[in-house]
Amino acid sequence: MKRPTIAEIAARAGVSISAVSYALNGRPGVSDATRRHILAIADQIGWRPSVAARSLSGSRAHSVGLVIAWPADTLGAEPFFMRFIAGLEGELSRRSIGLLLQFVDDHRAAIDAMRRCWAERRVDGMVLTDLWRTDSRLPVVEELGIPAVLVGGPRADSRLPSVWTDDTAAVTSAVDYLVALGHRRIARVAGLPALEHTQVRIGAFRAAARTHGLPEPQVIETDFTREAGVRATRTLLSRRDRPTAIMYDNDVMAAAALNVAQEMNVAVPDELSVVAGDDSQLCFLVRPALTALARDIQAYGVHTARVMMDVIDGRSPQSQPDTPTRLVVRASTAAPAT
Amino acid sequence: MKRPTIAEIAARAGVSISAVSYALNGRPGVSDATRRHILAIADQIGWRPSVAARSLSGSRAHSVGLVIAWPADTLGAEPFFMRFIAGLEGELSRRSIGLLLQFVDDHRAAIDAMRRCWAERRVDGMVLTDLWRTDSRLPVVEELGIPAVLVGGPRADSRLPSVWTDDTAAVTSAVDYLVALGHRRIARVAGLPALEHTQVRIGAFRAAARTHGLPEPQVIETDFTREAGVRATRTLLSRRDRPTAIMYDNDVMAAAALNVAQEMNVAVPDELSVVAGDDSQLCFLVRPALTALARDIQAYGVHTARVMMDVIDGRSPQSQPDTPTRLVVRASTAAPAT
DNA sequence: CTGAAAGCGCTTACAG
DNA sequence: CTGAAAGCGCTTACAG
Q1: Domain B63-164+298-312 CATH (choose: 2.60.40.10, 1.10.240.10, 3.40.50.2300, 3.30.1300.10)
Q2: Which of A220, A245, B42, B301 has the least C-beta neighbours within 10 A?
Q3: CA distance B300 to chain A (A)
Q4: What InterPro entries does its record include (chains A, B) (predicted)?
Q5: pTM for this prediction
């Protein structure tokens, strides 16, 4: 199956291949009639430019890379990535940019993967997610001069452009809501401590508690897994002055907490309110259905793609309005029993 | 940031670029000493071949495409894809093959995406998942001569190689188990009827029921969503001779069924046994924890990558042993109340 | 408005 | 064992 080239179009149209190239790329130098004729032929024979040839001459790979550093066994449980990727890819594909996806175990492997990708000229830029507080990937990306977008907010240690959702506002709104219900002992089961957003959320949580004049709240850091959520919940519910409300940094841990509470004979929501940090189907499949912080993850991916294109095309990346996070109230939260 | 080329290596080593190419590709025509010298330099300056250049001269894209035709809103709920992709990508990446991922809404769009990818020479082959009973993608792939692997079993209407798990054995084992517990009225909430595997599983289900001499069982087809699972469960539980056990084609619908049963005051597992068709975290986050058909999805992806490489490299693809599905018994199944 | 030519970074017969 | 040369399919100054 021979795929057609511009040489074939040129032959059919009876012009030079450069004329074809100009016509196809909408550049001046060809008459309107010729241009139309060429476009018609290209369309008719189903011609599309070879990315390899375009890359080689134009020094653009027409692809963007995403290296996900996340252990495979927790990946399937992360509804975030699938939706984020769907949004990212959809927007890239509108511009005929491919998405090259890679999974690795840690940042060392992520750096290797990025180096390789970049050296092989497979991508024009990289999307970095799940940034750590101090992230070994950043100096490498900056040193290699790889165009990149950080998903997770601007940082003092890097000038790379970023997109983010306002975690502070989200956490604050959840605390406000719980306090309005009458809660005063609110705890937090946080995510992976190395992650920047985990720390941002913890900070926002503590600040909100202070604002409301609550006692210094308990915070337990985890690795986002169900097991860690179970352990943290057991610990919190075993305290003499156990919290009347717990906020979790994702949905899996919050769902696991419902089971722990049941085992320990703590009624949800009467004796314990539970807030999930991510919204997914899981939240309305468990009982009671979970109150959760919800955001439009797909739009987040779309947004990231746009900024990535700005960077690649040399436009000053305009950080577009972040998708706001909102609290979806369901059955797992209520006023505390007195 | 100038990325090094073989010309630079040649200059440093004081040989021709063809010598460098031969050395780097492990082909004869260079002395061992020269070869080692060249490899050392390449390694030292962090050289990697430009895929674009290699593609253009070698007519290989060094990438494989996966076009997922699945509405975005149900995607996040599908733990299958994330794990499958992780397995697929991991194995491809071991061979320096990239994975180009695309999401589309339907088969029309999938065909467009594949045509484009192929015409642009972005990929060396395509992975097709979620095959329909009659699937409009197949004739296109065959006509274009795209190397492809079908995920979902060999078919009469195509000679394309395939990988698959034995759905018949899986469904049969689940029916056997339920019958052994004493169930005789077993129903099935099936998936999307257009899908080949939905029909295979329904066929296996009916056959197993017949083997055990059960009455002709109820089967309800759905679109895999929670809502459809809820509706189907309500219908089944409203019947006078309602089933004592229901098998669901995925985990989301099975989880939703637990809530329906509770609303309708049907005790699980005493009055109703529930079996989920996929295993995921969801199964042990809900209560009672769901008995489920589990398989190693990541291995399935690895397996698919291997067959894909066989196809691309012109080896006769050897369909390796399928990953067996096993029934994981949890708390949602028990002997029926008499 | 149009064509001939060089070049992107490799691979690969083909001579020496 | 090694080098000079053509070619993969485009883009893009540069002449006409």
Answers
A1: 3.40.50.2300
A2: A220
A3: 14
A4: HTH_LacI, LacI/GalR-like_sensor, Lambda_DNA-bd_dom_sf, Peripla_BP_I
A5: 0.94
